[in-house]
Amino acid sequence: MNITNWKREWFFNTRQDILAGAVVGLALIPEAIAFSIIAGVDPKVGLYASFIIAVTTAFLGGRPASISAATGAMALLMIGLVKDYGLQFLFAATFLTGIFQVLFGVLKLGRYMRYVPRAVMVGYINALAILIFKAQLPELINVPVTVYVLTALSLAIIYILPRFTKVVPSPLVALVVMTIAAISLKLNVPTVGDKGELPTALPSFALPEVPFNLETLNIILPYSVTLAIVGLLASFLTASLVDEFTDTPSDKNQEAKGQGIANMITGFFGGMAGCGMIGQSVINVQSGGRGRLSTLAAGIFLLIAILGLQVWVKQMPMAALVAVMIMVSIGTFRWSSFKNIRRIPRTDTAVMLTTMLVIIFTSNFALGVVVGIVMSTVFFSRKIAQLVFVDKILSQDGSHCTYKVAGQIFFLSRDEFLEYFDFTELVERVTIDLTHAHLWDQGAVEVLDKAILKFRRNGAEVELIGLNEASATLLDKLTDYQKSTARS
Predict the structure, then answer these.
(1) Nearest of 279, 367, 218, 338 to residue 24 by alpha carbon
(2) Which of 402, 408, 401, 399 is nearest to 433 (CA)?
(3) What is the distance between the alpha carbons of residues 306 and 349, in angstroms, rounded to a whole number?
C-alpha cells in the first residue's frame, strides 16, 4: 500500500474514526459476553475474539469502517461442538474455519457474492434489525421503572443531540452520561458487570489441546465448513451495507482473507470464530467512522475498557446500551422495502419477506439466505422461460414452414416452446431456425427432440439451422434423432 492509499484509508477522518471506535468498543462488550453465553463458553472467549478480530481486520480486511468480532450467528453454530467436545475443539475448529476463509479469498470466490439477489440481502438485513431489537427485550422485562427512564433518556440524547452538535457521537455521550448518572445517584439497575466477569489479562498464545489426528479433523470439519460459509456471507453482506452507506467500494476477496487470518489467530489466543457485524458496523458509520482507524480504535477501546476501565465499565447501565442497540435496529431496518412495496415486483417482495421470516423464526441466517436464493432462482427462471418467441413463416405454396426461435430454451421453457408449433399442419419441409436461441440443458434438447420427431411422424423433413457452437455440442451429446440433419 503506497503512502496516498495509506492516508486515504487510515488518517483522512482521524477524530471521528477514534470517537466512533470508542462507541463501538463499548457496545461490543455486552454483545461479546452475550454471544459467549449463547455458545456455552466463558465471557472472556468472546471478548478476546472481538478484540483480536477487530484489530486484525482493521489491517487486513477488505472493507474500511466495517466491524468484525464475535457474533450471534456464529455462536449459534458452535453450541453442539462445545457441548459435545469442549472448548479446545472450538479453538481448533476456529483455526480451520480461518483456513477455509483464506482459501476462499485466494481463489477469488468473493465475486460470487453478486449472485445473492438484493431482495435476499434486504430480507437478511431486516431480519437482523428485528432480531437485534428482539434481543433487547429481556433487558426491558421485569426490571425497575428506572430502567425505562434511563432507556428513554438515552434515546433522547442519541436522537436530539445531533440536531445541535455532531462534535462527539451522540451514542458515546449517552453511554457516558447514563453511566455517571447511575453511579452518582446510586441507581439500582442492571449493569454490564451483571453479564459476567471481565478478563483481567491479555490473551496468551496456546495451541488447541486436541489430538492432531483424523478423528479430530472429522469432528471439527463439518463445523468449520459451516462457520466459514456463514461467516463469509455475514461479512460480505456487512461490507455491502457499508459500501451503500459510504458510497465506496470494498474488496470481497481481501475481506475473505482478512477474516480468515483473524480467525486463525483467534483460535491460538483463546477466542471463538467471528465475522462481520452489521449492527456494530452501522453504529460505527452512523457515529462518523469511515476509515480503518475506526475498526482498530474499536478493538483497542474494547481492550482498554475491559482491562483498564473495568471498574467503570462494570457499572455501565444496560439501559444505555439497550438504547444504542435500539438505535442500531432502527437504522439497520430498510424501511423503504415496505414504504415502496407497491412499486417493487411482487416476486421480490415475496423473496424479501420469506428470507426475513425464515431467519426471524429459526434464528438461522444461512437457512434464510439459502431459501431466499432458491426462491429468487425459481422466480427468475420462470420469467426467462416466458421470454421465448417463435415466428412462423409459411411458403407461398404451403409446402415449407420455417419457425424462427428466439430466447433461452431450458427445462422451464419447454411448454412455451412447444405451444408455438403446429404439428397438425401438413407440410413437406420444416426448418427450425435457432440463430437467436440457446439450448441450455437436457430439458431443452428433449423438447427440441420431441418437436422434430412429431413433425417427422407427419411425414415432414426437418432441418435445424443457426445453432451456436455450445448448443450444437449439447445437441450432439444428448439428441435421439439423426444428427446428420442438423447443421450450423
Answers:
(1) 279
(2) 402
(3) 43
Q: Which amino acid is at 52?
A: I
Centre a 10 Å sphere on the Cβ of residue 416 and count the other Cβ atoms it contains: 17
Q: What is the pLDDT of residues 49-70, one digit of tens each?
A: 999 999 999 999 999 999 999 9
pLDDT above 90 coverage of the chain, percent: 33
Cell of 84: 459435545
Q: Residue 10: which pLDDT band, with cuts at 50, 70 and 90?
A: confident
Cα separation, 485 vs 465, in Å, equals 9
- Nearest Cα neighbor of 220 from 317, 328, 91, 126 is 91
User: Which residues make beta-bridge pairs with 259?
Assistant: none
Question: In this predicted model, what pLDDT tens digit does every residue of 153-178 receive, in sequence order?
Answer: 999 998 999 888 877 778 878 888 99
> What own/partner pairs with CB < 8 Å and gap ≥ 24 does 182-187 have?
182/150, 182/315, 182/316, 182/317, 183/312, 183/315, 187/146, 187/150, 187/317
**In whole angstroms, what is the distance from residue 430 CA to residue 119 CA?**
44
Let me know: does 166 contact 288? Beta carbons within 8 Å. Answer: yes
CB 228 within 8 A of CB 102: no
**Angle between helices 278-286 and 318-332 in degrees, nearest 10:** 90
Alpha carbon distance 471, 488 (integer Å): 10
Tens of pLDDT, residues 363-413: 777 788 889 999 998 888 778 777 788 888 888 888 899 999 988 888 887
Give 38-95 as a 3 state SS string. HHCCCHHHHHHHHHHHHHHHHHHCCCCCCCEECCHHHHHHHHHHHHHHCHHHHHHHHH
Scored b (16 or more CB within 10 A) or e, 269-304 reads bbbbbbbbbbbbbbbbbbbbbbbbbbbbbbbbbbbb
**By the 8 A CB rule, do 254 and 9 touch?**
no
* Spatial CA neighbour of 274 closest among 262, 285, 257: 262
Spatial separation of the C-alpha atoms in residues 89 and 41, rounded to whole Å: 12
Give CA torsion, residues 444, 449, 454, 459, to 10 deg: 140
The 10 Å Cβ neighbour count of residue 222 is 12
Alpha-carbon torsion angle 54, 56, 58, 60, nearest 10 = -140
Pairing of strands 68-69, 275-276: antiparallel
Q: Which three cell numbers stand for residue 266?
A: 483467534
